[in-house]
Amino acid sequence: MVEEEAGADALDGTSMKRMILQFEKKAYRNQEMRIKFPDIPEKFMESEVELNDMIQEMHVMATMPELYNILVELNAVQSLMQLLSHDNTDISIGVVDLLQELTNVDVLNETEEGAEGADALIDALVDAQVVAQLVQNVERLDETVKEEADGVHNTLEIVENLTEFRPELCPEAAQQGLMAWLLKRLKTKMPFDANKLYSSEILAILLQNHDENRTLLGELDGTDVLLQQLAAYKRHDPVTGEEVEMMENLFNCLCSALMLAANRERFLKGEGLQLMNLMLREKRLSRNSAVKVLDHAMTGTEGTDNCQKFVDILGLRSIFPLFMKTPKKNKKGPNSGDLEEHILSIIASMLKNCTGTQHQRLLNKFTENDHEKVDRLMELHFKYLERVRDCDHKIEKERNDLKFFGGEIDDDMEDQFYLRRLDAGLFSLQLIDYIMLDVCSSGVQTIKQRVMQILNMRGGSVKAIRNIMREYAGNIGDAKDDESKEAEQNRILQLVDKF
Questions:
Q1: Rounded (to 5) percent helix, strand, coil in the chain
Q2: CB neighbours (10 Å) of residue 377?
Q3: Which of 224, 338, 247, 258 is nearest to 291 (CA)?
Q4: pLDDT tens, residue by residue, 32-42
Q5: If you average pLDDT over every residue of the chain, what do you get?
Q6: In 258-367, where does DSSP find H-type helix?
C-alpha cells in the first residue's frame, strides 16, 4: 500500500510516458501472439495476463488529470479504444474500469491545471466515438457473470461522467446506439438489479433537456417500452427503495418524452391514458406520479386528443376524488403542493381542450352533490390567496427597504420576486381562478351564484380575482408560438370581462 502511494506521488510526465510506452508494447505483443497462435491459448495467455496487469497499473494516472495531455499526444486513447473490442472480455472490462476512473467528474474538475488535460481527454474520447465502442462491448457481456455485470455498471458510469462534464454530448451519445441499448436493457426479463436502476437513470439524463433525444425515443418505440415497464406497478408496489427510485426514473422519462407533441400521440395510441387512469384508482405508490404524467400529456393545445379521450375512459371519476382530497406524499414522487398543482392543471387543460359532450360532462361535475366541487375550489382559492399575499407583503417590505437605502430594483430582481411568488403558490392560484372563471362562464347559472355567495361570505373580492387573471394573461410563457399565446391571452381576458 505504501509503495503504491509512493508510486502515485512519483508519477510525473516522464514516468507517465514510460508507462504508456510499456502499455503499448504489451498491447502489441499480445496482438502479435494472438495472430500467430490464434488457437493455442497457452501461447498467448502470458502476454494477456501481462497486458491486463499493465492496464491495472495505469489506474494511477487517474490521480493526475494535468498529465492527461500526454495520454492524448501518445495516442494511448486510440489504443485503449481498440482494446474495447479485444476477444477476451476481461481485457475490455479492464479498459472500461480504467476509463471510468479517468473520466471521474470529481477528478476532471479537481484543479484548474487539470482542466486542460480533462478537455483534451474528453475531446479524444469523443473523436474516437467512445459511446459507440462502449455499446458494442456491452452488447456482448453476460450479466449473469459478476465481473461482466460490473463492467456494464462501469460503462454506464463513464456515460454519466461524460454527460455531466459536457451535457451537450447527450444527443450524440444517444445516437451512437446508447438509447437503443438502454431500452433493450430495460425490457430484458431479468430480476431487478443495480444495472436496471442505472439504465433508467441514464435514460432520464438523456431525455432531460434534449428534444432530439425525445424524438429518437419516439422513433425507437420508447414510449411503449416505458409504459410496459410501468404497467408492472399498477397493482403492485416496488419491493425495495432502489426499485421505487427506478419507477420514478421511468415516470420522469415519460414526462420528458411527453414534452414532444409526436410522443403524446404515441402515448394515446399506446393506451397510456388507460394505464395512468388505472393507477389513479388503485391507490398504489405509482398513483402520484401517474397524476404528473397525465398533466404532461394533457397540457396545451397538443394535449387536446388526450383530454377528450380521458373523459371518454371515465377519467373524471378518477381525478375529481383527488381534487376533493389531495393525496399524501409518497417516499418519492411529487409532494402534496406539486400534486395539487398537477391536479388543477389537468382540470384546467380539460376545460380549455374538451369540446361537445366531453366538455358538458366536465361542467356537470361542478353542480353534482350540491356544488361540492365549487366549494372545494373556493376553499383552495382562499388557501392559496393567503399564501401569495403573505409572500407579497414580504416582497413589498424588501422593496421599501431597498428604496430607503437607495438600492435599485433591476429586471433580474423583478424576475426573482416573481419566481418567489410562483413558489409560494401563485401558479396554483392562477389555475384555480382560471377554472373558476371558466365554469362560471360556460356552466349553469347556479355555479356563479355559489361562487359569489362564498366570496361575499368570506369577504373575498371579484377585483382581486380579476387582477390575478390579468397578471396570468400577461405572463403566459409556455405557448409554443405567438399566435397560440395571443389566443390564450384573449381567451383569459374575455373570461375576466364576463366575470
A1: 80, 0, 20
A2: 23
A3: 338
A4: 999 998 888 88
A5: 92
A6: 261-269, 272-282, 287-298, 304-312, 316-324, 336-353, 356-364
Question: Taking the mean position of all CA atoms in its chain, how far away is CA 119?
Answer: 26
State residue 61 phi and psi, 5-degree precision. Answer: -65, -30
Predicted confidence at residue 127, as pLDDT, reads: 96
Q: Determine the Cα–Cα distance for residues 362 and 347; give it in Å rounded to an integer.
A: 9
Rg, Å, the chain Cα set: 29
Which of 382, 405, 402, 384 minimizes the C-alpha distance to 394? 402
- For the question of whether the overall pTM of this predicted structure is more than 0.85, the answer is yes
Question: In this structure, what is the dihedral angle of CA atoms 259, 263, 269, 274, given to the nearest 10 degrees?
Answer: -30
- Terminal-residue alpha carbon distance, the chain: 78
Instruction: Please enumerate in sequence order all residues whose Cβ is within 8 A of that of 415, keeping only pairs 6 or more positions apart, or say none.
Output: none
Whether 247 contacts 230, CB under 8 Å: yes
133-139: which pairs have CB atoms within 8 A and are 24 or more residues apart? 133/81, 133/84, 133/85, 134/84, 134/96, 134/158, 134/159, 135/176, 135/177, 135/178, 135/181, 136/84, 136/85, 136/177, 137/84, 137/85, 137/89, 137/92, 137/96, 138/181, 139/181
Cell of 109: 474538475
> Residue 138: what residue type?
V
Cell numbers representing residue 460 in the block = 373575498
User: Quick check: 304 and 259 in contact, CB under 8 A?
Assistant: no
Asked whether 324 and 277 are in contact (CB, 8 A), the reply is: no
With a CB cutoff of 8 Å and minimum separation 6, the contacts of 317 are none
Q: Identify the residue whose cell numbers are 470529481.
A: 106
Q: Phi/psi zone of residue 283: left (φ > 0), alpha (ψ -120 to 50 degrees), beta?
A: left
pLDDT digits 0-9 by tens, 326-361: 888 777 777 888 999 999 999 999 999 999 999 999
* Residue 57 pLDDT class (50, 70, 90 cuts): very high
Q: How far apart are CA 110 and CA 114, in angstroms?
A: 7
pLDDT over 50 at 105, yes or no: yes
d(CA 422, CA 135): 43
| Percent of the chain surpassing pLDDT 70 | 97
The per-residue pLDDT for range 203-227, each reduced to its tens digit, is 999 999 999 999 999 999 999 999 9
